[in-house]
Structure formats: C-alpha cells, structure tokens
Design goal:
The protein has helices spanning about 15-25, 60-70, 85-95, 125-135, 150-155, 165-180, and strands at about 5-10, 35, 75, 110-115, 140, 145-150. The protein is an alpha/beta fold and about 190 residues long. The longest helix has 17 residues, at about 165-180.
Length: about 190
C-alpha cells in the first residue's frame, strides 16, 4: 500500500519557487510514496462559518476537503509574506480544520517546508503554519523542517529538483512524514 501525501503550496505566483520545491518533492518521492500537488487553492473562498453549512459548502472548499480526506498526510510549502504565511495557506488550514475536531487534517501528520528570498528561508512563516496546523488538529512534525534562503538567486537558473542539497533535505522530510503516516485502506 502506498502512502499518499497532499502538497499545499502557499504561493499562487507563476514560477513560484515553492511550487517548484513541491514539484521536486513529487519528482523525488521514494517508491511507495505518492505526492499530489493540490490545484485550486486560489478558488477557495475565505473561510466564513456562515457559508460552511452542510449541503451548501462552496464547491472549491468541498473539493479541497475531499482531496484532503483521501490522503495519509500533508506537506505544506510556505513562502514568507511580511513575516508570516500567505493568506491562501492559512485559509486552506481553516477549511481543513472544520468541522471542529473532525476536520480532514485532524490527526494526520503534517510537515512544513519552504523557501523565501530572505536570509532565513521563511522560517517565521513556516513556524506560523506549524502553529496553525497544530491548533487545527494536525499532527505537526516539529523536527521535519527545511527552510531554504535566497530563493531568487539560488533558483534563478536551477530548478530545486536539480539541486542535490535541496533534494537531500526534501528526502529527509518526506522520510519523516511517511514514517508517521498510516496508509488508508483502499
């Protein structure tokens, strides 16, 4: 049975280095591990309890929840926007945290990684994402970390999938994540 991981990328920018990092994770996932890059976070409306009503949840949010319900764990990729995680990533966490105590992220292992232009690689944003995921009920892997600084220069001419240090770091995180994931019965 393979382990299924859902990758949520907090950058919507075309050419996003965090998107490229997620692509590298999917490309270099070991045998028996499937990493799916979720498409559609830009379409998910901001969380509002008034629209989170059974039988009328917005379609984009329902698709996110359905995809999350089919996986064994999560790998979040967060750039740093003004010292914290992007709103699109926080919004995804909010939708996946509901219904309270039984959301699609509840009790599933979650690792947070990323890259940013600054000298610390987005650690503040990644720490905020870990905090939000933990409060949302996810099983945060606090030691599964990868923060890559200087993204604009480091990845100007090299895709993260072709950077051996990045691939090694991602491989370590994926190994930690999959060791905590329990494959769902098909």
């Amino acid at each position: 049975m393979s382990v299924r991981i859902l990758a949520l990328v907090g950058s919507l920018r075309a050419g996003s280095h965090n998107r490229q990092l997620a692509e590298a994770a999917a490309k270099h996932a070991p045998e028996g591990v499937e990493i799916e890059l979720y498409e559609g976070l830009a379409d998910v409306p901001f969380y509002n309890e008034d629209i989170d009503v059974e039988a009328s949840v917005p379609e984009a949010a329902a698709r996110l929840r359905a995809a999350a319900g089919q996986v064994d764990g999560f790998l979040l990729f967060s750039p740093e926007y003004n010292g914290t995680m992007p709103a699109v990533l926080k919004n995804a966490i909010d939708w996946l945290s509901r219904p309270y105590g039984a959301g699609a992220i509840s009790d599933k292992p979650v690792a947070v990684v990323g890259t940013a232009f600054g000298q610390y690689g987005g650690v503040w944003a990644q720490d905020d994402a870990r905090k939000a995921v933990g409060i949302a009920g996810g099983a945060v892997l606090e030691d599964a970390k990868l923060s890559i600084p200087g993204s604009m220069t480091r990845f100007a001419d090299t895709h993260p999938a072709d950077d051996s240090d990045v691939v090694a770091g991602l491989s370590g995180v994926i190994q930690q994540l999959t060791s905590q994931a329990t494959p769902a019965a098909a």
